[in-house]
Design a protein that fits this description.
This protein is 0% helix and 56% strand. The strands form five sheets. It has a seven-stranded antiparallel beta sheet with strand order 1-20-17-22-15-14-13, with no helix packed on it. Strand 13 and strand 14 form a beta hairpin. It is globular. The mean pLDDT is 94.
């Protein structure tokens, strides 16, 4: 089955930061319920994401290189390094800032996940997970880091799986989504061939119940997401999701 290939759009964000936004953009002006937004971000000191308010969604940040410092109005101030994860449920309101460590580029992936309606007014929450605490599975030529989902350390209010996948050799990545699941793949580095040909900064949208089979070149690194839709409208109002 044909999948829609999306090319990310590079744009400025925050104070001097830049992102490659996979969606929503002019290339894919929508969302993929329950997923609201995905950015690959690049921030160097003294640039930062200055204090701002969020509501109505969860944000998951996975660090690829450098460090990121999160500070919020709930009293959390934490630093996450390469391979680590920080996440928050903005709920009814969270004000936070994010800035890079002092010495070099901060590079990572930020994903926004919609909250179910009954949790839009929930109290905000924050989680941080160090790289050493993320389980790794080696299977069929791939090294898979389990960020969220079964037996993974990150707890979310949406039923989902979040994997960071590295090809340790030329290999075929296969998966079958359940009838009520949707998926998304975003290629950070490398090349994927076969039925779907895309390169760094591109992704594919996977529909409910679909099979995927990807020919992945050695050292390619990608994000694999699977989620159960909430089947509710997604509306972005600045930094809020209503």
């Amino acid at each position: 089955m044909d999948k829609q290939i999306i090319t990310s759009v590079e744009k400025p964000e925050g104070e001097g930061a830049r992102v490659k936004r996979l969606f929503p953009t002019s290339n894919y002006n929508g969302h993929h319920d329950p997923f609201v937004l995905m950015d690959e971000f690049f921030v160097e000191p003294p640039n930062e994401f200055a204090p701002h308010e969020h509501r109505g969604f969860e944000a998951i940040t996975y660090m690829l290189e450098g460090q990121f410092i999160h500070e919020d109005n709930q009293g959390n101030k934490e630093k996450v390094g390469p391979g680590g994860v920080q996440a928050f449920n903005a709920g009814k309101s969270l004000v936070h800032s994010e800035k890079p460590g002092p010495n070099k580029l901060s590079h990572g992936i930020q994903l926004w996940v919609n909250l179910p309606k009954e949790l839009k007014k929930s109290d905000p929450e924050y989680q941080i997970i160090e790289a050493k605490d993320i389980p790794i599975i080696k299977k069929d030529g791939f090294r898979i880091r389990q960020i969220a989902g079964k037996d993974a350390p990150l707890k979310t209010h949406t039923e989902m799986r979040y994997q960071v996948v590295l090809a340790e050799e030329d290999a075929t990545f296969t998966n079958k989504l359940a009838d009520q699941e949707v998926g998304l793949i975003y290629l950070i580095d490398g090349v994927i061939n076969g039925d779907y040909n895309f390169s760094s900064g591109e992704g594919i949208i996977i529909d409910k119940g679909d099979n995927i089979s990807l020919e992945v070149q050695k050292n390619s690194n990608f994000i694999f997401l699977v989620g159960k839709p909430h089947n509710q409208d997604i509306k972005i109002r600045g930094s809020f999701v209503e």
